[in-house]
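Holo prediction. Input below; ligand is farnesyl diphosphate.
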Amino acid sequence: MFSNKKKKDSQERSEKSAVDLQRIPEHIAIIMDGNGRWAQQRHLPRVAGHKQGMEVVETITKAASKIGIKVLTLYAFSTENWKRPLDEVNFLMDLPVKFFDRFVPELIKHNVRVNVMGDEEQLPKKTQEAVNNAIEQTKDCDGMILNFALNYGSRTEIIAAVKNIATDVKNDKVTTEQIDEDLFAKYLLTGQLTPYNDPDLLIRTSGEQRISNFLLWQIAYSELVFTDTFWPDYLPENLYHDIVVFQQRDRRFGGIKTQKGENESK
Ligand code: FPP
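Structure of the complex:
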């Protein structure tokens, strides 16, 4: 009879073997949702869900890096999350401190570079320090980028890009004629991720089917996968499964499929 561990390992192997390693999405973005409900189901305080969620960040980061993802963007705190009770906000602001404290050596071992996008100035000093130390300590890693969206909101990001372009036009650094999609993309926070600015795959856990002000420009052609699993229950086998779902989709970017199976714009 299978033990739980053996059963889990075998399921993980079977999901992994279904992944086509030649067609791995380069950039995966995840809305990590369901921490509160996970805790509630266990009669635990909501923050217990966030704590377990942090453990899952570690597991999924390793799995994503091993399978060859180039960028993993995780929505860790939105500009709207400040509306939560102060205790919960404080706990969430402590998580990067705990996470990087423990996990930076592992990140370096896995050649993972940390990036953070969002309004850093509003974060508590200790969170800013933790984040900046992690960025500094992993700056020479050239494997996967672990990109945390922290105090991030897509509309704010777009408005900031518009303002910066307007300033550059005023200062004759850019002409109005030069403003196109490529230039605009460089002014977004994901400009730092070039050439992997846009997610190929966006996953949201917990059964909710919303975008919640996440990467509104960048997901124009992303495949969206909504899974019922709560984030604290999300395992590498769930990630492999969602990658397989992505690989079964027919991405045409507004074009048509040629007989060779390649895309051709209309
Ligand atoms: C949404 O679940 C989740 C968050 C607002 C926080 C996500 C943060 C983590 C998973 C940990 C991040 C780790 C690091 C290292 C920064 P929810 O609380 O809205 O869940 P609910 O919809 O069930 O209430």
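The chain has a mean pLDDT of 94. That is the main takeaway for now.
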